[in-house]
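FIELD: query
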Amino acid sequence: MAFPESMGFSATGLYLSGGSLLMPVFLHILVDLRALLFAPGREHRKSAPIGAGSAR
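FIELD: result
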């Protein structure tokens, strides 16, 4: 909960100091890109060898 709160305060500070929403929007884009690029990968299941335990 601390990260969204600190980002909100930072974005508010940027808006109040600059008077424009461009910098807070740019900051939000950077945070979203960071989440997209550094997202944890999916774990793949290890498949059993062919014929092991399959009775078809």
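FIELD: remark
The mean pLDDT is 85.
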